[in-house]
Design brief:
Layout: E1 5-9, H1 16-24, E2 43-48, E3 51-57, H2 71-82, E4 86-92, H3 99-109, E5 115-120, H4 127-133, E6 143-145, H5 154-164, H6 169-173, E7 177-182, H7 189-198, E8 202-206, E9 215-221, E10 224-228, H8 231-235, H9 249-258, E11 261-267, H10 274-285, E12 289-295, H11 306-317, E13 325-328, H12 337-351, H13 357-370, E14 384-391, E15 396-401, H14 409-423, E16 431-436
Parallel strand pairs: 1-3, 1-4, 4-5, 5-6, 7-10, 7-11, 11-12, 12-13, 15-16
Antiparallel strand pairs: 2-3, 8-9, 9-10, 14-15
Helix pairs in contact: 13-14
Bound molecules: guanosine-5'-diphosphate (2 copies).
C-alpha cells in the first residue's frame, strides 16, 4: 500500500525545498525498505484534501557552464521519474524562462509521467499571472503561478496534481455520479425524487462534512450508482414550516456546487421564469453538466407538434444551455422518468471527457481555414497558435493566440460553436480561455 510518489524537478534555487517543506510540513521523512526505491533521496509524506502521497526532491538538476543538462544528472532524474506517478516541475517566475528550463522541459516532454508546471515566486497578485504565462511555450500545459513562501496558488496546483494520482481503492469502489435535483418550488422536485427512487433500491446515507441535515440518497441502476444530493432539502418543506427561503435558493446553490450533473426541473405549464434563469445562471457559473427536465407533461393538451413547439419556446429562453438534453416527463405518471438517468449517464461522461491536443488543433485548423480571425481597426490580425484541453469537469480548452484583444465576441462564439459541433460534449458546458503571448 505504498503511497504514490510525486517527483519535484527543477534547477537549483527555484524554490524546490521551500515548496517541499510547505507540502510536507514537519512530517518526518519516510524510510523505505522495499527494494527498487532509490535510497539516497528523502521521501517526505504530504497530503492534499483527502489524498496522501509522498514527495521526493530530486535535489536540483545542475548544469555545467554551458547550461547543458549533464548525462549523469539526467540519469539521476530518470531514476526519480521512473518511480513517480507525477512530476512537479518548478521554475522561477521572477527570473522568467531560462535555457536550462527549456532543456528540462524538452526532456520532461519525452517522459510518460504527467507533469505539472509550477511557476514559483509569483507572490505578486498583478504580476503572478503574467509571469506564469511566459512559461506556456515550454509545452507542458498550463503554468500554475504560486508562491512556495506565501502558499498562494498552491491549492489550484495541488488540485491539478490530484487528477493525475491513481484513484484510491475507495474512489474506485464508489464511482458514483452526483446528481442535484434543482428547480423553483412546486415544479415537482419531490415528486420526481419519489419517482426516481420508488422503483430503485434506494439507500439513504447521511454524509459527513456537510450540514447535518443534508441527506443524500443513493440509487443504483445497471451497476451504476447515483448519489441524489440533499434529498432532505427537497422534501423537508413538506413537513416543517421553515419559510420558503430557508430551503430555497441557497440550498439549491449548495447542491449545484456538489453535483456532477444537475437535473434542472422546470414546470411546462409555467415555462422559463426569472427565478429559473437565476438558477440557470448559477449552474453555468459552476460549470456543471445539465439535463433539462420539463415536468408535468401529462397536464399539457397535445397533438403531434406540441412537443416541438414547447421545445423551441423553452430553448429560446435557455439558448445558453442549448447543448443540454431536454426531456419532457411526468413525475406523476412516471412517463420517461427512467430515461432521465440515461441522459445523466451521457452528461456525466461528457463532462469528464478528455480530448487530445491533436484533435483540438484539427478542429481549430479547419475552423480557421473556413473563417479567418478578424483584423482590428488598426489592421492587426488575430492569430491562433494552438489549443489544448487543460481540464475536465467541465472541459476547458486554452487557446494560445498572439493577442486575445484581436478576437471579438463574434469570432469567439464561432470558434466555440465549431468545438461544440466537432467534439460534442453533449450535456456539458465547454470553457474556452483565450491566452495571449503576453
Ligand atoms: P531549491 O534550490 O530549488 O531547493 O530552492 P530553495 O527552496 O532553497 O529556495 C531558493 C531561494 O528562493 C531561497 O532564497 C528562497 O527563500 C527563495 N524562494 C523560495 N520560494 C520562494 C517564493 O515563493 N517567493 C520568493 N520570492 N522567493 C522564494
Ligand atoms: P417541489 O416543490 O418542486 O418539490 O414540487 P412537488 O413535487 O411538491 O410538486 C408540486 C405540485 O405539482 C404538487 O401538487 C404535485 O402533485 C404536482 N406535480 C408534480 N409533478 C407533477 C406532474 O408530473 N404532473 C402534474 N400534473 N402535477 C405534478
Amino acid at each position: 500500500m505504498s503511497l504514490p510518489i510525486v517527483a519535484i524537478i527543477g534547477r537549483p534555487n527555484v524554490g524546490k525545498s521551500t515548496f517541499v517543506n510547505r507540502l510536507a510540513g514537519n512530517q518526518q521523512a519516510i524510510v523505505h525498505d522495499q527494494p527498487g526505491i532509490t535510497r539516497d533521496r528523502t521521501y517526505r509524506p504530504a497530503f492534499w484534501r483527502d489524498r496522501d502521497f509522498q514527495v521526493v526532491d530530486t535535489g536540483g538538476l545542475v548544469f555545467n557552464d554551458d547550461s547543458e543538462f549533464l548525462p549523469e544528472i539526467r540519469e539521476q532524474a530518470n531514476l526519480a521519474l521512473a518511480e513517480a506517478k507525477a512530476a512537479i516541475f518548478v521554475v522561477d517566475g521572477q527570473q522568467g524562462p531560462t535555457a536550462s528550463d527549456e532543456e528540462i522541459a524538452q526532456w520532461l516532454r519525452q517522459q510518460s509521467v504527467p507533469v505539472i508546471l509550477a511557476v514559483n515566486k509569483c507572490e505578486s497578485p498583478d504580476q503572478g499571472a503574467i509571469q506564469a504565462a511566459e512559461f506556456w511555450h515550454l509545452g507542458l500545459g498550463e503554468p500554475y503561478p504560486m508562491s512556495a513562501i506565501h502558499g498562494s496558488g498552491t491549492g489550484d496546483l495541488l488540485d491539478a496534481l490530484l487528477e493525475y494520482l491513481p484513484p484510491t481503492q475507495e474512489e474506485l469502489e464508489e464511482d458514483e455520479i452526483k446528481v442535484a435535483i434543482v428547480g423553483r418550488p412546486n415544479v415537482g422536485k419531490s415528486s420526481l425524487l419519489n419517482a426516481l427512487t420508488g422503483e430503485q433500491r434506494a439507500i439513504v446515507s447521511p454524509i459527513s462534512g456537510t450540514t447535518r441535515d443534508a441527506i443524500d440518497m443513493v440509487v443504483e441502476r445497471n451497476g451504476q450508482k447515483y448519489r441524489l444530493i440533499d434529498t432532505a432539502g427537497i422534501r423537508r418543506k413538506k413537513n416543517v414550516d421553515y419559510g420558503a427561503e430557508f430551503f430555497g435558493i441557497n440550498r439549491a446553490f449548495k447542491a449545484i456546487r456538489r453535483a456532477d450533473v444537475v437535473l434542472f426541473v422546470l414546470d411546462v405549464l409555467d415555462g422559463v421564469t426569472e427565478q429559473d434563469l437565476k438558477l440557470a445562471g448559477r449552474i453555468i457559473e459552476d460549470g456543471r453538466a445539465v439535463v433539462l427536465v420539463i415536468n408535468k407533461w401529462d397536464a399539457v393538451e397535445k397533438d403531434s407538434y406540441t412537443i416541438y413547439e414547447h421545445r423551441e419556446q423553452l430553448m429560446a429562453r435557455l439558448y445558453f444551455m442549448d447543448w443540454a438534453e431536454m426531456i419532457f416527463v411526468s413525475a406523476q405518471t412516471g412517463l420517461r422518468v427512467q430515461k432521465i438517468l440515461d441522459c445523466v449517464d451521457i452528461a456525466a461522461q461528457e463532462h469528464r471527457r478528455r480530448v487530445t491536443t491533436a484533435v483540438i488543433n484539427e478542429v481549430l485548423e479547419e475552423a480557421v481555414s473556413w473563417h479567418s480571425p478578424p483584423t482590428t481597426r488598426q489592421g492587426k490580425q488575430g492569430k491562433i497558435y494552438y489549443g489544448t484541453q487543460v481540464s475536465t469537469q467541465p472541459p476547458a480548452i486554452a487557446l494560445f493566440v498572439n493577442d486575445p484583444n484581436r478576437f471579438n465576441d463574434n469570432y469567439r462564439r464561432y470558434i466555440e460553436k465549431q468545438f461544440r459541433k466537432q467534439l460534442g460534449f453533449f450535456g456539458s458546458p465547454i470553457r474556452l480561455f483565450w491566452r495571449g503571448k503576453k
